[in-house]
Predict the 3D structure of the following.
Amino acid sequence: MADQYTQLNIGANGDFIDEEGITYPSAPLIRKRSRVVVSGSTPEEITRILNDDPIGNEYGLITRNIPSGVQKVEFSGSSVMEFGTSEVEYNDETAVVTYEVTSSELNITSIHVSGNVDSKFLLYINSDLKGVLRTTAASPNASFQFNSNLKLVTGDIILITVKHLENGLTGTFDATILGLSN
């Protein structure tokens, strides 16, 4: 099959894509594909595998083998996991877990909360309200996820409270703070 151009924008002055036909050993035997290489038109030139580190004069997309399975991640410092649980009466705001930073820096990665009745969890840092999560009996778990970590320093206090929203019931609530300290 000869190289062709496909007109995308039909009409006068339409745009064109540079294509080539490649013969494959299985059906369909002839397939079109957009030409995305700077040089070379045979399958061997387009898909050439170098198995070397790039030196800077290559054209095209450089890819690397990505090992499968769990990748080992190392960090300096130690992990922090602070857990708390509380039973709370209706409409009372009660502390579930508190943590005071004692290292030079603490990177909070996530905070997980759970309750068995409708509730509102509040996240305070140094007495300033920073976030709110709501849970229900049907959806009892929620999380604060910090994409770039929440950085705290020595003396900072993180507090998770809960306000129970179901009249006539006593609720049980949990909260876990996860992070890394330096």
Summary: The longest helix spans residues 43-46. The chain has two domains: 4-46, 78-181. The domain at 78-181 is CATH 2.60.120.510 (Jelly Rolls).
